[in-house]
């Protein structure tokens, strides 16, 4: 039994091991945003109407459930982070219950072929020796994985680095196809680097044994064909110049192949492209590029689809065309003439209004690498973007086509930070790429992202503990230097924002923290004081009208404000290995007593602007602090003068605080941690003496966890930010709705 904590952590013999704690079962739900990230591929099943699959670059795969009218995530029980990056997806063309995934985030991580006989509800995995790049350049290529419709136990996979591979036992075992002409670019003398490799594998359903493979690597030949099920191969002569790379292809019921080309594997870096058709019966090639010649906009082509009902009804998408914007082209006569759909269609984003991004009109989309026409309903088509998945039921309509986000159930975003304030909305978030949101209703997509300034990434957020409507944030854009301001404050709980400008901002060097978004910002408990971690830290008490230097605070110290006492701020001096405290609203910092802390505090140093603050103040309790050093948690109840170690034996990576249990002296602690060899989400309600795991084997999300906190107003509520599956909120399962 644990008999208590000693103030002196040097007496380790008296410290108890962290014990397993009985924890209630938890119910986990996504905080609704709706899409939000890049899903490189959308594939309809050719075996059953109403069945489709979506692959994402870091959030796993989804299946469309037509009965429930929502997308079902298929890998939430996964524990391997790399497997959440999906390189390719292949529904069986004969049996609608069978589906395959090629999973692997990048060449640095493990890769596997997943196979399921129940539409992805359960998986069997075969680790494979050929690396993948589900979140590398070229992730929009494909599909690289294909099932032979005439012998559906036979599959081919076109790898990036190691040539063509084949399975003859439904994906259980794989071996190289030695007869294929391209073995791959990598050699022992040449380390693996991102390149396209074999970009697609396509079986021709109308001709048994016929299969095509494209190569997006440099070379004289880019298209290869087999007519005997892959036993022998030949290069297909003709087509565009060799500098254009085949990125995607589709075959019609007439056997004609439509191929999109770009001069780079993308999704960035593409400057030109083309669309060609190849008729294997005659050997003829035909250039059908919608916009060609020297006056064509910069950019290439990637998405391609052919109607199953009419092989001359085809569609292609542009990619990398930033001016006037990417688009989809549709043809009813095999490319003799084209209609640009961006010009004749509307986007109805009422379900996910953040897609306006503060513009009057919603953009058609960027990074349109995936495009598909429903094989059972040619009026139903879909395309992916870097922020959502659109679908229409009017694809054959010549005018007034409406596209809507097809994202119910999809949450594919990377979370950097969030806060759960003591008042106002229960959650305010900071995202990568989308900036972040005020979440007034966790079940409804927010009306807009953080604006004024609009920063693609929010790196730090803070709220005033006694005046929670006052908030501050910092962030960056996709450019090296933030063009205007990287700082903002809000007086209405994050609904609206006002930029903050530090002195001489325009004349600062490009690497100044406030120019790059590296300067975190903190607000005092009463909301009157903002402290910014610039190279020479600054403080303002008049909303940025004037600034004063902070004395005694070294650059690189992460600051925390007391949530009750507006005079108190805290930080760590890593050079002196001392906890610092300000007792005069951030004007001066001096060493606190800090007894009970280790001599070396470097384990609390944050790395990078997106790192969570290891020093957290307790809402509602003046002077109560928690500090994570390495993987060990400490607590103080006297403004940092003395500290106790909060448990032993649990290795904590991230943590946050929530409302205390009834009759408890300690806030609930929620942690991303490892206990007894099991990594998961843990909770302690007794100050860290014992811990209970509150996620289960069905809720692991690749263990891609970034940030966690509790709710100061709802006991048991925890918020979890992932890298690819959005935000989850968890409640004890027995709680009444």
UniProtKB/TrEMBL annotation:
Keywords: Carbohydrate metabolism, Glycosidase, Hydrolase, Polysaccharide degradation, Signal. InterPro entries: WD40/YVTN_repeat-like_dom_sf, Xyloglucanase_GH74. One of its GO terms (molecular function) is hydrolase activity, acting on glycosyl bonds. It comes from the Bacteria. One of its GO terms (biological process) is xyloglucan metabolic process. Belongs to the glycosyl hydrolase 74 family. This is Exo-alpha-sialidase. It comes from Stakelama tenebrarum.
């Amino acid at each position: 039994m644990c008999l208590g904590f000693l103030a002196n952590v040097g007496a380790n013999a008296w410290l108890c091991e962290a014990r397993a704690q009985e924890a209630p079962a938890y119910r986990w739900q996504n905080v609704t945003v709706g899409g939000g990230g890049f899903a490189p591929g959308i594939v309809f099943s050719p075996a059953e109407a109403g069945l489709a699959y979506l692959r994402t670059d870091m959030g796993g795969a989804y299946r469309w459930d037509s009965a429930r009218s929502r997308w079902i995530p298929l890998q939430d029980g996964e524990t391997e982070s790399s497997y959440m990056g999906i390189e390719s997806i292949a529904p069986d063309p004969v049996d609608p219950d069978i589906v395959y995934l090629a999973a692997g985030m990048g060449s640095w991580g493990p890769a596997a072929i997943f196979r399921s006989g129940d539409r992805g509800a359960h998986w069997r995995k075969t680790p494979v020796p050929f690396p993948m790049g589900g979140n590398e350049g070229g992730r929009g290529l494909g599909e690289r994985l294909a099932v032979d419709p005439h012998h559906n136990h036979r599959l081919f996979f076109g790898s990036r680095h190691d040539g063509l591979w084949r399975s003859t036992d439904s994906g259980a075992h794989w071996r190289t196809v030695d007869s294929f002409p391209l073995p791959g670019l990598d050699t022992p003398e040449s380390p693996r680097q991102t390149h396209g490799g074999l970009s697609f594998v396509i079986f021709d359903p109308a001709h048994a044994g016929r299969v095509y493979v494209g190569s997006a690597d440099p070379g004289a030949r880019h298209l290869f064909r087999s007519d005997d099920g892959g036993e022998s191969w030949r290069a297909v002569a003709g087509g565009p110049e060799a500098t254009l790379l085949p990125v995607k292809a589709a075959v019609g019921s007439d056997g004609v192949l439509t191929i999109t080309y770009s001069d780079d594997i993308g999704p960035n870096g593409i400057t030109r492209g083309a669309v060609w058709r190849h008729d294997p019966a005659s050997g003829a090639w035909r250039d059908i590029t919608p916009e060609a010649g020297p006056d064509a906009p910069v950019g290439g082509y990637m998405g391609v689809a052919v109607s199953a009902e009419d092989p001359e009804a085809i569609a292609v998408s542009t990619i990398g065309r930033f001016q006037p914007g990417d688009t989809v082209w549709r043809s009813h006569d095999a490319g003799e003439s084209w209609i640009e759909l961006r010009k004749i269609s509307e986007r109805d984003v009422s379900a996910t209004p953040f897609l306006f991004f503060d513009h009057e009109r919603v953009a058609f989309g960027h990074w349109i690498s995936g495009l598909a026409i429903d094989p059972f309903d040619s009026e139903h088509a879909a395309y992916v973007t870097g922020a959502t998945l659109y679908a229409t039921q009017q694809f054959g309509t010549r005018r007034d086509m409406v596209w809507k986000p097809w994202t119910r159930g999809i949450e594919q975003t990377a979370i950097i930070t969030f806060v759960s304030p003591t008042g106002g909305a229960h959650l305010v978030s900071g995202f990568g790429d989308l900036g972040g949101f005020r979440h007034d209703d966790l079940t409804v997509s927010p009306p807009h992202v953080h604006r004024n300034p609009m920063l693609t990434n929010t790196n730090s957020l803070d709220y005033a503990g006694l005046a929670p409507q006052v908030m501050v944030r910092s962030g960056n854009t996709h450019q090296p230097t933030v063009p205007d301001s990287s700082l903002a404050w809000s007086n209405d709980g994050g609904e609206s924002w006002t930029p903050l400008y530090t002195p001489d901002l325009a004349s600062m060097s490009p690497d100044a923290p406030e120019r790059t978004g590296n300067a975190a910002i903190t607000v005092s408990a009463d909301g009157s004081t903002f402290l910014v971690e610039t190279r020479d830290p600054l403080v303002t008490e008049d909303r940025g009208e004037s600034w004063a230097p902070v004395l005694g605070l070294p650059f690189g110290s992460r600051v925390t404000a007391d949530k009750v006492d507006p005079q108190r701020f805290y930080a760590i001096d890593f050079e002196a290995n001392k906890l610092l405290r300000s007792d005069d609203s951030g004007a001066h910092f001096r060493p606190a007593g800090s007894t009970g802390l280790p001599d070396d505090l470097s384990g609390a140093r944050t790395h990078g602007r997106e790192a969570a603050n290891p020093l957290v103040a307790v809402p509602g309790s003046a002077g109560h602090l928690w500090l994570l050093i390495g993987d060990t948690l400490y607590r103080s109840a006297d403004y940092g003068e003395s500290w106790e170690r909060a448990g032993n034996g649990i290795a904590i990576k991230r943590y946050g605080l929530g409302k205390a249990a009834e009759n408890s002296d300690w806030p609930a602690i929620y942690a991303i941690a490892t206990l007894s060899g099991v990594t998961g989400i843990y909770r302690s309600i007794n100050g860290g003496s014992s811990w209970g795991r509150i996620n289960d084997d069905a809720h692991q999300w690749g263990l891609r966890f970034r940030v966690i906190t509790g709710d100061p107003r709802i006991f048991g509520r925890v918020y979890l930010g992932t890298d690819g599956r959005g935000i989850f909120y968890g409640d004890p399962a027995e709680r009444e709705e």
